[in-house]
Amino acid sequence: MKWQGRRQSSNVEDRRAMGGGKGKLALGGGLIGIVALLLATFGGEQGAQIGQVLQQFDGQNVQVSEEQVRELTPEEIEMGEFAATVFADCEDVWNQLFREMGRTYKEPKMVLFSSTVNTGCGSATAASGPFYCPADEKVYMDLEFFKELKSKFGAKGGDFAIAYVIAHEVGHHVQNILGISGRMRQQQARASEVEKNKLSVELELQADFFAGIFAHYNKRYLDEGDIDEALSAAHAVGDDAIQKRMRGHVEPDSFTHGTSEQRKYWFMQGYNTGDVNAYE
After folding, report:
1. Which residues lie closer than 8 Å to 279 by C-beta, 6 or more apart?
2. Percent of the chain residues topping a pLDDT of 90
3. By C-alpha distance, which of 248, 226, 245 is closest to 237?
4. Could you tell me if 120 and 21 are in contact, meaning their C-beta atoms sit under 8 angstroms apart?
5. What pLDDT does 158 receive?
């Protein structure tokens, strides 16, 4: 992706050189995916036992260690500048699209962190991966996640894999301010566990679609192979791909993010159409 020398967002807070602090462990945001993965991985009676243990932590204060302030490496500085450029591109795209809808886009903020982080949804660890917190309207990114995406999940890597994930999380912010996620939570409150999962999949696939919208309006900055990098990342984090890798088989009723093919399909729908209303 062509990003050097372009505008960087002023809505980025870099906490990577700071300690994570202490606070309440959040089971929302990206951590929901980890909890779901644990339950899906072990399943049955063992999964139920894990669920009971996790419930014991709900509402309790969990202490996380503080880290000493350190100096960022040149690689970390460059990664932060790249992420800030992508975030600026997201701002440009969604400001334009909201104007076309006759609305005003409320820009989110992005927090770069390592180890642990305090959020409006509670405290989280790097194990949560990237996530969006609707309580403070911030995207939280541990950029080390992308090394694991390549080494542990088999993605190609590359800078546009990072851009895809950032744009996906910004997609959750778009859902939040449009009221889509709020309406979905109301439906989930009345739904069975299987139906809740299906509704969660719908939200995640729409966020992939919005990431494709972002890519559509940034074609002039794309290098050859960038879309393949995004599709490789989308494939790697599909529920079926993760479950096959973790336990050798899949359970569709436990999916919360969609299959690899679904994630790739909806990203490409956004990329090919550029039409916010093309998600059905």
Report:
1. 205, 206, 209, 266, 269, 270
2. 59
3. 245
4. no
5. 82
Amino acid at the residue 196: K
Distance CA 118, CA 195 (A): 31
pLDDT band at 2 (very low <50, low <70, confident <90, very high): very high
Q: Give the model's pLDDT for residue 48.
A: 42
**Residues 193-230 pLDDT 10s:** 999 999 999 999 999 999 999 999 999 999 999 999 99
Distance (Å, rounded) from C-alpha 150 to C-alpha 148?
A: 5
Can you tell me the mean pLDDT for 240-258? 87
As to burial, measured by CB atoms within 10 angstroms (0-12 exposed, 13-18 middle, 19+ buried), residue 63 is exposed
| 63 contacts 79 by C-beta, under 8 angstroms | no
The string of DSSP letters for 12-38 reads: EEE-TTS----EEBP-STHHHHHHHHH
Q: Where are the beta strands (DSSP E) in 113-181?
A: 116-119, 122-125, 131-133, 138-141
What is the CA angle 31-9-184, rounded to 5? 40
CA separation (Å) from 276 to 70, 93, 96? 42, 11, 12
Instruction: Tell me the whole-structure pTM to 2 decimals.
Output: 0.81
Which residue type does 159 have? D
CA distances to 67, 82, 172, 178, 255 from 181, in Å: 34, 28, 8, 8, 18
